[in-house]
Amino acid sequence: MTDTAKKPIDEGTESRTQQVLRDIVSGNAILSVLAVVLALLVSAILIAATDKEVQAAAAYFFSRPFDTVAAIWNSVAGAYSALFQGAIYNFRRPGFADGIKPLMETLTFATPLIAAGLGVAIGFRVGLFNIGGRGQMLVAAAAAGWVAFGVPMPFPIHLIVAVIAGLVAGAIWGGIAGLLKARTGANEVIVTIMLNYVGLYLVSYLLRTKGLLQAPGSNNPKSPAMLPTAIFPPLFGPQYPLHWGFILAILATIVCWYLINRSSLGFQFRAVGENSNAARVAGINVKNVYVYAMLISGALVGLAGVAQVLGTVTSGFSEGIDAGIGFDAITVALLGRSRPVGVFFAGILFGALKAGGYSMQAGQGVPIDIILVVQSLIVLFIAAPPLVRAIFRLPKPGAAPRKLAVAEPTAMVSE
Amino acid sequence: MKLELRGITKRFGSLTANDHIDLVVQAGEIHGLLGENGAGKSTLMNVLYGLYQADEGEILLNDTVQHFAGPGDAMKAGIGMVHQHFMLIPVFTVAENVMLGHESTLPGGRLDLATARAKVREISARFGFDVDPDALVEDLPVGVQQRVEIIKALSRDARVLVFDEPTAVLTPQETDELMAVMRKLRDTGTSIVFITHKLREVREVADKITVIRLGKVVGQASPTASNTELASLMVGRAVDLTIDKSPAHPGAIALEVDHLSVIDHHNQLVVNDVSFDVHAGEVLAIAGVQGNGQTELTEALLGLQPKVTGTVSLDGTQLRGRSVRRILDAGVGFIPEDRTEDGLVAQFTIAENLMLDRSTQPPFVKGGRLQLEFLDDFAKEKIEEFDIRAQGIGSLVGTLSGGNQQKVVLARELSRELRLLVAAQPTRGLDVGSIEFVHTQIVAARDAGVPVIVVSTELDEVVALADRIAVMYRGAIVGIVPGDTPRDVLGLMMAGETSVEAGAHA
Asked: Which CATH code for domain B242-331+417-506?
């Protein structure tokens, strides 16, 4: 019975999404970088086009064309330098300690993005679309938060227990989707999306209910502040927001790299992700792999939720604590080509866009929505590798004269 | 109609798939186009059909130069193609399929099905096809579906018909019928190009044979040429078509399959109460036309089918109901029918594919950690031993030729301690050289005392390898006969006659 339900998914719709995933995963780093460059270029056009001064100068373009060019330059250069100064280093501030603050901000934003991005990437490598980042983050944040404000313990133990509670909660929320897929053949895309809503309303209920997560003496759907014993200590002193969660993100990157590239489990993950049929015939238990992958994926996304409540927003959380990271993580994983190191840098780039976006808006009046446009364009260009290749005149993968590929084209034709 | 190709050249990047190919097909001639997979036969025909534009050269019909921008132009000029994989819509009727693409309509946009039906009947009558215009294509046997393809081409007044590997899906009897149809078409003046890599068929039906290798015409031959001559032309060196096989020395019964039945995921009984045994040091070939339950039978042996009844015991241990993992661990080696789909991970390296079915145990994995150094040494050794042509152990398997891919599968399976080898269609789609290699390896495994099951739809392969032959038809074994049973008897058994009816002495 389970198999009649499962077969068509495995062979029909699934193979299609898995095909797309495979294409995305097999793309190379250069394409990722070029996609970012292209996205920034196109956004530059938008920034210039929406700039009041550019519009004014363009009105008399034919009498003084140089004015328009100068205005465009000012507008784009201004916006991107504000982005840089808000994200990496602010030259206007006195001294290195102050100037580097934006980078610290960037890394703080990057921490949950890296963790959740790794979670989504692990799913991708197994051929699973984990769209359930929001639910997994919220549940993990609630679990970690409850331990952190409600169960007093001495310092390092309290923090460790809270982190573990969050990871386990995230793993369970992800694992439910994995289990349903393995046992009934349910499509993990639909299940994880639905679990987002279940998680959201569950946490929302807990936050509204006295004696559960709601702060005592308040009617707002918000938790109490975390106890100081369960908060990630600052990494470089209290003047910077960056906390030890970032170290956990680095560790998670290393662990994921090891898992995927060096461990037996990761080998099975990749085999299932690339060709689940061959994996099954080779004796790999594909159903178990789905469950393990979703458990690990959920735990990593859960780490993002943990970093939010125990590091970034320690004054108590509400149902918006996920801050859209669960979805941004999908983009981060795509941009990082689902490779742990790639995800790490993609996470930092997105952290930089977030951090820099605010100063771009404040300094240059460029709407922060432009950051969303940049992010969306990155996804668009990554999803369309042939387009990027055509623009930069890159060779097609496999078209390079490789000796062994010689038999390929005719072989394909004669199929 | 006379077809002439002059100096056709087609390049894909740095690869020249067709290199100045000249070909003349006279009106009323069956012209065999013989070559291995990847020799450029299909590319040439796609150029002729307008699917590809030639880089150089021209196509002439009755001595007039033609320019085809697409299949539409080719069809208009009178070229028809019967593809290897039928281009039919299963849920449409025969008449609907035949009119598809050039539908004529009645006033008000209604489809003129009556004309299409009449046309199907008329062509059927002319060539003695028994095709009902209102039958759904999906309900028709494969041989009849192929006739629908032929009718489709003829309904567009094709005067040149191209058959692309038409016998791959047919029983020997259906193949004979197809050949009769081809002769009838020839006698009405149609020119026929018959693309194949099967020597016997081309010798039987073709009036003239052109052999191509690596994109070039390497020779013309007459149908009187011997198999060995043709094969040597095809491969470019002397080929030994007979396998050096000493008589088997069967030992004790190793595998016993008893009353095995399989129900597939459509709830169809696909393997029906099958019983047989295999001795150590013996090759049991399972013959039969594609789709008679052989695939499901091998999958059941491997634990890949969920609904199986009966018993499978290997050296006394019950295999049925065990997981694939445990069946592999019991010493079963498996060469799957579809190597790209079930046997290999195209995006993995040769080395990674070599450890695919031992991904959890020593020697490749210790303490959950991949033993990459061991794997590298192992892969280098196997590349040498099995003569896998690749740049190195890090080459992606997807970039290898079919023959080399199959060698990777063989290397993986044969490097384990085997107590049973199940090889399903082990040489499908391979070139003659690789077929030789694979057969030699299978015989070597047999001689080492391993019981071997070879599933094949190619009679040549069955006859070459088998010590005993089990013939399957509609999920059941119609008979188990000795390895030297004549082909015509096997052919009749493949069509469902029992060994006694077919005249076998077993």
From this structure: 3.40.50.300
